[in-house]
Write a structure and sequence with these properties.
Elements: H1 2-9, E1 13-14, E2 19-20, E3 24-26, E4 32-36, E5 39-43, H2 49-55, H3 61-64, E6 74-78, E7 82-85, H4 91-101, H5 106-109, E8 114-116, E9 133-136, H6 159-173, E10 177-178, H7 182-190, H8 206-209, H9 215-218, E11 259-265, E12 288-291, E13 308-310, E14 319-321, E15 324-326, H10 354-359, H11 364-381, E16 386-388, E17 393-395, H12 419-422, H13 446-455
Parallel strand pairs: 11-14
Antiparallel strand pairs: 1-2, 3-4, 4-7, 5-6, 7-15, 8-9, 10-15, 11-12, 12-13, 16-17
Length: 475
């Protein structure tokens, strides 16, 4: 009945497409997409720490005051209807893409693998202090360290992997596939609501609509018991897509299960200058946004407004994707490139690798430099003691814990370091390197942040003297 009511509420046609559009479409990989109507919504959150403290009493105040990139609340107008995946991309769908295209995901291409759950792994004994074991070649989208069937969401995929799948589908079907923009994602997640979650403000409501960190997951991480939702959602790790009730747009798992890549570069100050109509995010950046939280995410960080990020080459056991199929086929070619994103014009007969497609568009000298930087990036991501600058690679001092823009669920750690804890010069004010200031840093972004800190006169990577006992990082 919920589905029929939702279908009846959708417009029979979309003016921007110029023809009647079906409310649900299914593609060649068996992926279902639902029509999201155009409209206007408020994006972001400006809740005061006092209000959040009442709803999340177990969180330290410092966590509640570091959500500034969710503000200001601003009006967003989605001017054209679009199709959004009803579910996150599944293991089976990604497998069919890989087998049909010949594409090799980055975790296999660079040989460093991904991350996974390992019951015998102790974060305290690792150099990075990460909550999950890795990087290691034994982990990839095929093996996240816990059982997954074909109907579970695929994980350990990079932003570049998601773009490659989108491009391949676009070329194969003559329809434009892509990642959603951050504005489209939040608009679709809220589905007309202004509450913290699409089901209401109470964090406990997540157990009915989302696979997040609760008693089931907590049994593997008892040290975070205080942050686990009371109750059981029935899943210790990922859940089959569609296992929980959908939102008003009939989209499943917009909260939890896996983090979802979106198209935008991340900028903590972007909301203050974002256009009203169809914001596309910053033109450039170092890290890409991910949204929604995961099966390992604490309730505070699974809210509709919460923003998180990683570098495009990041892969993690909690990170997946959901795709858009554009409804406006008359406006642009199915193979047109989107601003601020890397797309190929044509794959030809050979299945593309994102790196080779991108390199083909550059001049030979840029090719060689880009390949070298990617090789160095891979080395740095797999080594806790290296960081890269614009002109050299230097040895990083050993650090306890790691930086995080989220909780114990990204390629970071179960512990955190903050500017206030590591350098008195940053206490109570923003970082001069403009890297997020009084926030926690994503581990994948650390080499870019370290470079900006050095350029800003900091002279060392943040976190060198911090204590991992400051608390858990965000989920």
């Amino acid at each position: 009945m919920v589905l029929f009511a939702w279908l009846a509420s959708l417009p029979a046609s979309a003016e921007d497409a110029g023809r009647t559009l079906p409310p649900v479409v299914e593609n060649s990989l068996g992926m279902k997409f639902v029509l999201i109507p155009s409209g206007t919504s408020l994006m972001g959150s400006d809740e005061r720490p006092e209000a959040l403290a009442a709803a999340y009493p177990q969180y330290e105040r410092r966590r509640l005051v570091r959500l500034g990139d969710e503000a200001p609340v601003h009006r967003v107008r989605i001017t054209r209807a679009f199709y959004l995946g009803q579910h996150e991309v599944t293991v089976g769908q990604f497998r069919r893409f890989v087998e049909a295209s010949g594409y090799v995901p980055e975790a296999e291409t660079d040989g460093t693998g991904g991350y996974g759950y390992n019951a015998s792994y102790d974060p305290a004994t690792s150099a990075r202090g990460d909550a999950f074991d890795g990087r290691h070649p034994k982990y990839s989208w095929r093996n996240p360290g816990f059982p997954q069937s074909d109907d579970h969401p695929v994980v350990n995929v990079t932003w570049n992997d998601a773009v490659a799948m989108s491009e391949w589908l676009s070329a194969k079907e003559g329809k434009k596939y892509r990642l959603p923009t951050e504005a489209e994602w939040e608009y679709a997640c809220r589905a007309g609501t202004r509450t913290r979650y699409h089901g209401g403000d109470d964090p406990q409501t997540l157990t009915a609509v989302a696979n997040t960190f609760d008693v089931d997951s907590m049994q593997h991480w008892p040290r975070w018991q205080a942050f686990a939702l009371a109750g059981h959602d029935g899943f210790e790790f990922t859940a089959p897509v569609g296992s929980f009730a959908p939102n008003a747009f009939h989209l499943h798992d917009m909260h939890g299960n896996v983090w979802e890549w979106v198209a935008d570069w991340y900028d903590e100050n972007y909301y203050a200058r974002a256009p009203t109509d169809d914001p596309q995010g910053p033109a450039t950046g170092n890290v890409r946004v991910r949204r929604g939280g995961s099966w390992h995410t604490w309730a505070l960080y699974a809210r509709c407004a919460f923003r998180n990020w990683n570098t495009p080459a990041s892969r993690y056991t909690l990170l997946g994707m959901r795709l858009v199929r554009e409804a406006d086929e008359s406006g642009r070619s199915a193979r047109a490139a989107s601003p601020g994103r890397r797309h190929s014009a044509d794959f030809g007969r050979r299945a593309p690798n994102v790196k080779s497609v991108t390199n083909a568009r550059r001049s030979p000298p840029q090719n060689r430099v880009s390949r070298l930087r990617r090789m160095l990036s891979t080395l740095i991501d797999s080594s806790p003691r290296l960081r890269i600058g614009p002109d050299r690679v230097v040895v990083r001092p050993r650090m306890r814990g790691a930086y995080s823009h989220g909780g114990p669920d990204e390629e970071t750690t179960n512990e955190c370091q903050s500017h206030e804890s590591t350098d008195a010069r940053f206490a109570g004010r923003r970082c001069p390197a403009r890297c997020g200031g009084r926030r926690h840093h994503g581990l994948f972004a650390r080499r870019d942040i370290a470079r900006r800190h050095r350029d800003a006169g900091n002279g060392r990577a943040p976190g060198g003297a911090g204590s991992p006992q400051l608390g858990q990082t965000r989920l």
